[in-house]
Design a protein that fits this description.
The complex is a heterotrimer.
Chain A: E1 8-10, H1 15-27, E2 32-35, H2 41-46, E3 54-57, E4 71-73, H3 78-83, H4 89-96, H5 101-104, H6 109-113, H7 126-131, H8 165-170, E5 174-178, E6 184-187, E7 207-212, E8 221-227, E9 238-245, E10 248-257, E11 264-265, H9 267-271, H10 282-292, H11 303-321
Parallel strand pairs in A: 1-3, 2-3
Antiparallel strand pairs in A: 4-7, 5-6, 5-7, 8-9, 9-10, 10-11
Helix pairs in contact in A: 10-11
Chain B: E1 5-7, E2 27-29, H1 84-88, E3 104-110, E4 116-122, H2 124-128, E5 132-137, E6 161-162, E7 168-174, H3 177-184, E8 188-193, E9 224-234, E10 243-251, E11 263-268, E12 274-278, H4 283-294, E13 301-305, H5 320-332, E14 336-339, H6 342-348, E15 355-363, E16 369-381, H7 387-396, E17 406-415, H8 430-447, H9 451-456, E18 464-465, E19 471-472, H10 477-488, H11 490-493, E20 501-511, E21 528-534, E22 540-544, H12 553-565, E23 572-575, H13 593-620, E24 627-630, E25 633-636, E26 639-645, H14 646-654, E27 660-666, E28 686-697, E29 704-714, H15 721-740, E30 770-776, H16 798-810, E31 816-817, H17 821-834, H18 852-872, H19 894-897, E32 901-904
Parallel strand pairs in B: 3-14, 10-31, 12-13, 16-17, 22-23, 29-30
Antiparallel strand pairs in B: 1-2, 3-7, 4-6, 4-8, 5-7, 9-17, 9-32, 10-15, 11-12, 11-14, 15-16, 18-19, 20-28, 21-22, 21-27, 24-25, 25-26, 28-29
Helix pairs in contact in B: 4-5, 8-16, 12-13, 13-14, 15-16
Chain C: E1 15-22, E2 25-32, H1 37-44, E3 63-66, E4 69-72, E5 85-87, H2 100-107, H3 117-130, H4 136-142, H5 154-168
Parallel strand pairs in C: 1-5
Antiparallel strand pairs in C: 1-2, 3-4, 3-5
The chains are: A alpha+beta, B alpha+beta, C alpha+beta.
The structure holds flavin-adenine dinucleotide, iron/sulfur cluster and FE2/S2 (inorganic) cluster (2 copies).
Iron/sulfur cluster (SF4) binds next to loops of chain A.
Chain lengths: 324, 934, 200
């Protein structure tokens, strides 16, 4: 059995209580993690990766699991997202492609957004990582180098493989955060932050409350294409989501995931198209998106292949929203 | 029916408890004299009694010597596994479910280095940790062991050096898991790190420090563990071929992926005997190795096989962790339980060898296969395991089902600093089989003939001999091919589907039990023994050592005993878990269990049957020849009312004796050639299979999905069709994994990058095609009721069928497994580039325009079909050896007929220069030939 | 192998009393605050039918029903399901009566080595509780998180289809798996059936 190192699990009953707990730990300089469904955190803990002394569970806080067209709570289970009637079809379809049906019943939206970055030099047991003398992301005080791009001690290029982020971006989601210093919100596009260790803009003690979508989100059609070897379990090796309000080229949004340390909005490439979007633009846009990303070799499939596939995924996704 | 007994629990009861639960029902049980749950005798099930003895079961393949023991009770009927209720209620006890009072937890310290000498181990800090109850290192168990007596190269824990990351270094037992894990970090070890070897091709070269040292038999100072050379036939036939194929393959290592991780519990009982609980496929070898390593006589060890959560070859070696548990338990004086994480399962490995395989083949102007030239370099990892045998199997199991003009094989297995490869379902045959079948497809294309017709016109017949001297008895290859061709609508699809859709064929050939037991002389001791014991209650206890690993061997044994004695299967109780009570059995490997064990069981049952019939004779006055056994009753053939119940006959037979006891054994007939290595691949029977697979290839992404498989397998006689179909479909799944997604990834640093089930990609339910299992019954003359194996052979054809189907879909031949999307995409890109940079969607699909050879093949195939039918039914009993197709006389030695007819097991010096990759192993001399001998 | 880099395992996290309803019974167990549900169920509650195949969410052997929903117990903190209703494979049968899904796994080849079976049974049971008439595709989606290395899934899907039929009442509950003859009092044309044990 993969016994986890000791930690204390806490079960706050309200958002305030959670913030207070966090504040206390911060004040005492004690380390802690949030846990939602645990399907990402627990494997890491079982591998003895970045284990903290305290873990705060968000599972017992009521009201964090709302699901509607315009708002999804951080604790909404992915399983529920796939079957809920009032959720945007793009979210439902992207959620249904995540992990397996069993995992989706544990996993949550918040955990999916805040997913840790992944790398095959890193997502390994303690013994395994010891055998390669660790790596930069969890160097255990040894000052180890990154195993993917060596000779630089400052950057982790582990891959962000969350499935939902690009769809949330394509639907112009806003993420709502709360912490000891109060709430704040920002576009999902701005939530993620390089590098593979930093991951996102969450300050210590902050956690995600919910994601909301603009009024007109129901008018959007969207499509998410995921590259994976098996249709169950597998994380995306590349993923592209796109969405628009049919007929309105200015509303076109495209985002990708699983290619770099953060998911990426491709607004720049979309804007380069000018004010038009039709079938003829697809090859050009897909090509531009492909060129903009730089995958590295730390997932199951080789980076050159993943890069080339971005074009195919983008093309298919864009075609689908055009109804082609 | 007065006063029947009642048995718990039964089918239904009207009563309902207060909480809404139904009360456990009671089941009517008939009065003494019967046993079983049926109150009256059932009529004979004539549909399940062969024609040859007056029943209605058709026998297209002819009659069988066991026909007269058929009672229509069990054989040929779809049956739930006898232990299935334990499995569906969660009561089946696997390795980690054994909980003994006072148990403690063992943990293993594993090497962080690929290759290193252990200069010293200091355990003082470990021992000082409160809660640690025992510590052991290699010094505690210096004796070597290994599954094959010729290659005992393993220790319980590393003695001098570690040979791969994850190799065992030491172990501890502590009061709980956390303490044991903590303790692992307190060992202080001084290492001398050595240069590792990962690439098997490098293993062929001389090293400063070979991974093992074989003394005078060591090949140079290389890491070659075993090399094989075999050459048979007329090599001149390969000159001026009409078609030829030359393929160089790279196949990654794959793992069994059984769902139950290894686990073991060791307990020295108060009498000082070791009770060892382990999910083993081959408890007997573990038993022997434990005795050697622990230096305790075998009779002081009781190996208890728990339920086995899948084996597939991966639980058939004696394992070092079994020794560790025993050593720790002996030291601590308490039961020790060790259970593996999934990562540890990959460290112990024993999966299929990563291989470099090169196959050259040729066909002559009549589309006869004039030569196979196979070279297989296989990566053995750190230990020998079954590798000695694997090295042979990679070649010799390609000598059928086709008739060959010549056969040339060079194989080498090298040690590398990786977890050891070993035996896995389809042992040694899978990779070469794939290469060979794809080569045939290519030759068929060159000759513009249908690949199925090419095969049908080149098959060895039943009752023949292969080029290397294997004795083929029953042979359902032709029927298998014909049935998948019909089932899949092949003729309307092959080379006719649009781009991205493809269909392909592949065949398979596998041993049904290995002819020679590993540990003893088959002329003196049997392969398998089964004991039957019946006491006054009438219940039949069958003792066998056969290890049920989910394939249903316990069920098969129960079925044949039930069939012979005409008793309902619930009266047969199989005891197979403990070595104390089970006769020695060689275990579940080489697809031997049904064939050998069921044969032994039939013999034991026949002994009992004779005793019962004699008793009935005494009581009824009718000779056994005119007595019929049917459903708990023995009666006079011509007047069923004249008879005795089973229990009456039993009690009669028991007078003066008490319990009825019998013992049956199976021994294989003498067979095979005399050349070195002739025993490898020898089997009392062989299974044959043919699959057609349909695939969809996404030409833009390279993703291949297999949508449909028609899978025909000749298992001789399906004792339990449900189980045979389950084996066929399960084999498809496992083979599909190897061909599409599974591989053990060793990265640039030689580390296994994917020791988990997320990145080691076993197909999920979504990747499974619809499989149509087709059972072919060729009725093997020596098989139990005609049965042969169905557990391993069905895996072989799926790989080439898929690879050939991918070619049919996109016109690109890929010789790299698995066909992950990136590999396929790369091949597609190369092809589109070579065609001037066309779009993937414009790739030309391969098409077939029959040449004149097609008609020749069809005619020959038809002729051979009649030949085979007559031979199968023994209407033609003339000799047939490989070579007849090429005009040789089977009754005279082939050597006398052609000058060049070869049978060589070592290369002659002139050949050395032209040998393939693995053949290079022959460039080195053995130490004894070099004057070295240490 | 000594190093500051090691993550310490002892002392273990403080123990707490964990309570839940397991297979209809209120149970209490003493477990560390960071305990995983799978470990508590196996080691403290004694439900050894819940299997550990990978410990990382990739095999489904450890699936249990939590408030009727199939979830992986290896990726679930025991503390998070405190007080909830948990069903394991041991809770499927109604006393001595096997649930249809159990019988059908036996009769249709859904279980070979059986190690994956408890997990599949839980996924299947949850599906059939929601949907008595699932298509083969729906069945596949319900069991996509369960790995089986023996059966190739096909006979598992067959088993679930067969159980659905029984649940719907379209098929009778099968006779005990050990009885190959459906009719205990057959009258065959070939030979008269007769009571055993009455020899002349
Ligand atoms: C076998 C397997 C396959 C998987 N396949 C996929 C896949 O295909 N696609 C995919 O996207 N994911 C996959 N996952 C990852 C994971 O299951 C999902 O991403 C899931 O959504 C994570 O949610 P969770 O609630 O379980 O996260 P947790 O494990 O609870 O949390 C994940 C991380 O987010 C943090 N966190 C959780 N909630 C919050 C919050 N509200 N605010 C701030 N931080 C928070 C946690 O501290 C932790 O660091 C897979 C996991 C496994 C084990
Ligand atoms: S990308 Fe580099 S630093 Fe980051 S986890 Fe992988 S090896 Fe470690
Ligand atoms: S043990 Fe939980 S999914 Fe494998
Ligand atoms: S029956 Fe063995 S893993 Fe499913």
């Amino acid at each position: 059995m993969m016994l986890m190192p000791p930690f204390n699990l806490h079960h706050p009953k309200t958002v305030e209580e959670a913030c207070e707990l966090a504040a206390t730990f911060l004040a005492n300089k004690e380390s802690f993690d949030w846990v939602a469904g645990g399907t990402d955190l627990l494997p890491n803990y079982k591998w003895h990766i970045n284990v903290k002394t305290h873990v705060i569970s968000l599972a017992n806080i009521p009201g964090l699991d709302t699901i509607s067209m315009h708002e999804i709570g951080a604790m909404a289970r992915l399983g529920a997202l796939t079957t809920a009637e009032n959720v945007h079809p793009l979210i439902a379809s992207a959620a249904s492609k995540i992990a397996s049906s069993l995992i989706r019943n544990n996993a949550t939206l918040g955990g999916n957004i805040c997913l840790d970055t992944r790398c095959f030099w890193f997502n390994q047991s303690e013994d395994w990582r010891r055998s390669i003398d660790w790596c930069h992301k969890e160097d255990c005080g040894t000052g180890s180098d990154c195993r993917v791009i060596p000779n630089q001690n400052t950057l982790c290029v582990a891959t962000y493989q969350g499935d939902l982020a690009p769809s949330l971006m394509a639907l112009e989601g806003t993420i709502h955060i709360i912490g000891p210093n109060g709430p704040r919100s920002l576009p999902v596009d701005e939530f993620f932050q390089l590098d593979g260790i930093t991951r996102n803009v969450l300050q210590e003690g902050e956690f995600v409350l919910k994601v909301t979508f603009p009024e007109n989100v129901a008018n959007r059609t969207g499509s998410y294409k995921k590259l994976r070897v098996r249709e169950s379990w597998d994380f995306p090796e590349a993923g592209v989501a796109s969405s628009w309000i049919p007929g309105d080229p200015s509303s076109l949004r495209v985002a990708s995931t699983a290619l770099e340390s953060i998911p990426r909005s491709h607004q720049e490439e979309v804007d380069a198209l000018g004010t038009a979007f039709s079938k003829e633009h697809i090859p050009q846009l897909s090509e531009a998106i492909m060129k903009s990303i730089k995958p590295v070799n730390n997932t199951a499939l080789p980076p050159r292949y993943r890069k080339s596939m971005v074009r195919v995924l983008a093309k298919r996704s864009l075609r689908e929203i055009l109804g082609d | 029916m007065a006063g029947g007994y009642r048995q718990q629990p039964g089918a239904s009861s009207g009563e309902v408890r207060k909480d809404g639960k139904r009360v456990a029902g009671k089941q009517k049980f008939p009065p003494p004299g019967s046993g079983g749950s049926r109150p009256t005798m059932a009529p004979r099930d004539l549909d399940s009694i062969p024609e040859s003895v007056g029943g209605k079961e058709p026998q297209p393949a002819g009659s069988h010597i066991h026909d007269r023991y058929r009672t229509g009770t069990e054989v040929g009927k779809p049956r739930a596994l006898v232990d299935s209720h334990a499995k569906v209620t969660g009561q089946a006890w696997y390795g980690d479910d054994v909980r003994l009072p006072n148990e403690i937890i063992g943990k293993i310290l594993r090497s962080p280095h690929h290759y290193a000498k252990i200069k010293s181990i200091d355990t003082s800090k470990v021992e000082a940790l409160p809660g640690v109850l025992a510590v052991a290192t290699g010094a505690d168990a210096p004796n070597t062991f290994g599954v094959l007596p010729v290659t005992k190269d393993e220790h319980a824990m590393a003695v001098e050096k570690v040979r791969h990351v994850g190799d065992l270094v030491a172990c501890v037992a502590a009061v709980d898991e956390a303490t044991a894990m903590e303790a692992l970090n307190l060992f202080e070890i001084e290492w001398e790190v050595l240069d590792p070897v990962f690439d098997p091709r490098k293993g062929l070269e001389d090293q400063d420090e070979p991974i093992h040292w074989r003394g005078k038999y060591h090949v140079g100072t290389t890491n070659v563990q075993k090399r094989v050379f075999q050459e048979f036939g007329d090599r001149s036939l390969v000159d001026d071929p009409t078609a030829s194929s030359h393929g160089k393959w790279r196949m990654e290592g794959v793992h069994h992926g059984f769902t139950e991780p290894h686990a073991v519990v060791a307990h020295w009982d108060p009498n000082g005997r070791l009770q060892l609980y382990t999910p083993q496929q081959v408890p007997h070898y573990a038993h022997r190795a434990l005795s050697t390593v622990l230096e305790v006589p075998m009779h002081q060890i009781n190996v208890i096989r728990t339920f086995v959560g899948g084996g597939f070859g991966g639980k058939s070696d004696p394992f070092p962790h079994e020794m560790c548990a025993a050593i720790l338990s002996r030291k601590a004086g308490r039961p020790v339980r060790i259970n593996f994480s999934r990562e540890e399962v990959y460290w112990i490995n024993r999966g299929r060898h990563p291989s470099y395989i090169e196959v050259k083949m040729t066909a002559d102007e009549e589309a006869r296969i004039s030569g196979f030239d196979i070279d297989a370099l296989i990566d053995g990892g750190g230990f020998a395991s079954f590798g000695h045998v694997t090295s042979y199997y990679n070649g010799v199991l390609a000598t059928a089902p086709y008739e060959l003009g010549s056969f040339h094989y060079t194989g080498a297995r090298v040690w590398t600093n990786k977890p050891a490869s070993g035996a896995m379902r389809g042992h040694g045959a899978v990779n070469t089989r794939c290469a060979v079948e794809v080569g045939l497809d290519e030759m068929a294309e060159q000759m513009q003939v249908d690949p199925i017709d090419l095969r049908l016109a080149n098959l060895l017949p039943p009752h023949s001999r292969t080029i290397s001297g294997f004795r083929i008895t029953s042979n359902g290859m032709r029927e298998a091919l014909e049935r998948v061709r019909d089932g899949s609508d092949w003729d309307a699809k092959f080379r006719q589907m649009p781009l991205g859709k493809g269909i392909g064929i592949g065949c398979g050939f596998f041993i049904s039990g290995s002819g020679l037991p590993i540990h003893w002389d088959p002329n003196r001791f049997p392969h398998a023994t089964v004991h039957i014991q019946i006491d006054m209650d009438g219940g039949v206890t069958v003792h066998t050592g056969a290890a049920d690993i989910g394939q249903g061997s316990t069920t098969a044994v129960a079925q044949v005993v039930s069939e012979v004695l005409a008793l309902p299967i619930e009266m047969i109780h199989v005891r197979s878990h403990e070595s104390d009570t089970s006769p020695v059995d060689l275990g579940s490997y080489s697809s031997r269990v049904t064939f050998m064990n069921a044969n032994a069981a039939i013999r034991a049952a026949l002994d009992i049957r004779e005793k019962l019939l004699n008793a009935a004779w005494e009581m009824l006055g009718y000779h056994p020849d005119v007595l019929v056994l049917n459903d708990r009753r023995i009666y006079y053939k011509h007047d069923p009312a004249v008879g005795v119940s089973y229990l009456q006959a039993l009690h009669k037979a028991q007078e003066d004796k008490g319990s009825l006891i019998s013992s049956g054994a199976y021994r294989s007939p003498p067979m095979g050639g005399v050349h070195k290595g002739a025993a490898a691949g020898l089997a009392p029977a062989y299974s044959f299979s043919a699959y057609v697979a349909e695939v969809d290839v996404d030409v833009e992404t390279g993703l291949v999905s297999c949508t449909n498989v028609w899978a025909a397998h000749d298992c001789g006689k399906a004792l339990n069709p449900l189980a045979v179909e389950g084996q066929i479909i399960g084999s498809c799944h496992m083979g599909l994994g190897q061909v599409l997604s599974e591989k053990m990834v060793y990265g640039r640093t030689g580390h296994l990058q994917n020791p988990n089930l997320l990145e080691y990609k076993i197909p999920s339910v979504h990747e499974m095609p619809h499989v149509t299992p087709i059972i072919v019954e060729s009725s093997d003359p020596e098989g139990p009721f005609g049965a042969k194996e169905a557990g391993e052979g069905p895996l072989l054809p799926i790989l080439p069928a898929v690879v050939n189907a991918v070619y049919d879909a996109i016109g690109v031949r890929i010789r790299e497994l698995p066909l992950t999307p990136d590999v396929v995409w790369k091949a597609i890109s190369a092809k589109t580039k070579s065609l001037g940079g066309i779009d993937e969607t414009e790739l030309p699909s391969p098409r077939l325009e029959h040449s004149s050879l097609q008609a020749t093949l069809v005619a020959r195939g038809l002729e051979h079909k009649e030949r085979d039918r007559r031979r199968q039914r023994s209407e033609d009993t003339s000799a047939y050896v490989n070579g007849v197709l090429f005009g040789f006389d089977p009754d005279r030695p082939l050597e006398d007929q052609v000058d060049g007819w070869k049978s060589a097991v070592e290369p002659v010096p002139e050949q050395l220069a032209e040998l393939g990759l693995a053949g290079k192993a022959w460039l080195k001399k053995e130490q004894r030939q070099m004057g070295g001998d240490q | 192998m000594v190093g500051k880099e090691h993550v310490t395992m002892i002392p273990s996290a403080p123990k707490t009393i964990w309570s839940a309803t397991v297979n209809g019974q209120d149970v209490q167990a003493i477990a560390p605050s960071n305990a995983i549900l799978l470990d508590v169920l196996r080691d403290e509650v004694g439900m050894l039918g819940v299997k550990r195949g990978c410990d990382l969410g990739t095999c489904g052997c450890c699936a249990v029903l939590i408030d009727g929903e199939p979830r992986l117990s290896c990726l679930c903190l025991a503390g998070q399901v405190e007080g909830q209703e948990i069903t394991t494979v041991e809770g499927l049968a109604d006393g001595a009566h096997l649930a249809p899904i159990q019988t059908c796994f036996a009769t249709h080849g859904g279980s070979q080595c059986g190690f994956c079976t408890p997990g599949f049974l839980m996924s299947a049971e949850a599906l059939l509780n929601e949907n008595e008439n699932p298509t083969r595709d729906e069945i596949a989606c319900a069991i996509e998180g369960n790995l089986c290395r023996c059966t190739g899934y096909q006979q598992i899907v067959d088993s679930i289809e067969a159980a659905a039929e029984i649940k719907r009442g379209d098929a009778p509950a099968p006779s005990p798996a050990s009885d190959p003859h459906p009719n205990p009092h057959p009258e065959g044309p070939d030979e008269p059936s007769m009571p055993p044990g009455h020899a002349r």
